[in-house]
Specification:
With about 120 residues, this protein is α+β, with helices and mostly antiparallel strands. Helices cover about 30% and strands about 35% of the residues. The protein has 2 helices and 6 strands; from the N terminus they run ββββββαα. The protein has helices at about 75-105, 105-110; strands at about 10-20, 25-35, 35-45, 50-55, 55-60, 65. A hairpin with a 2-residue loop joins β3 (about 35-45) and β4.
């Protein structure tokens, strides 16, 4: 962690920008690392073995895609991926909870409405 920081900063601050339920690209995100380096254009993809992270890349002269930025060690890649996928799963959970809250009627509203009797 950088030594010039005075307060604890989360290692990875992940922001999920869009969630796409259909297709192999499930979401796009940005990751701020230690509050000093940001990576935009990260894609959370559905692969044959589950979710994976696709880093921003460019097409090289030979037709291959090369990552523009990337974690340098196996351990840092695992941490980075875990943070991004965790944020995606958290965003999914929050979205589902919000959708359920909108769908289910508020029981207090139902109880507070007067019941009209028929003649």
């Amino acid at each position: 962690m950088p030594k010039n920081t005075t307060s604890p900063v989360p290692k990875y601050d992940v922001k999920i920008h869009s969630i796409r339920p259909a297709g192999s690209c499930k979401a796009t995100a940005s990751v701020n690392i230690y509050g000093v380096f940001a990576v935009r254009g990260i894609k959370i993809m559905e692969g044959s073995k589950g979710l994976l992270i696709s880093m921003p890349s460019y097409k090289a002269g030979n037709g291959e895609y090369k990552d523009i930025c990337f974690p340098c060690t196996k351990e840092s890649k695992a941490e980075f991926d875990k943070a991004a996928i965790g944020a995606y799963q958290h965003a999914l959970t929050q979205g589902q909870a919000a959708a359920q809250k909108q769908e289910s009627p508020d029981p207090q509203q139902e109880q507070s409405q007067p019941v009209m009797g028929g003649m």
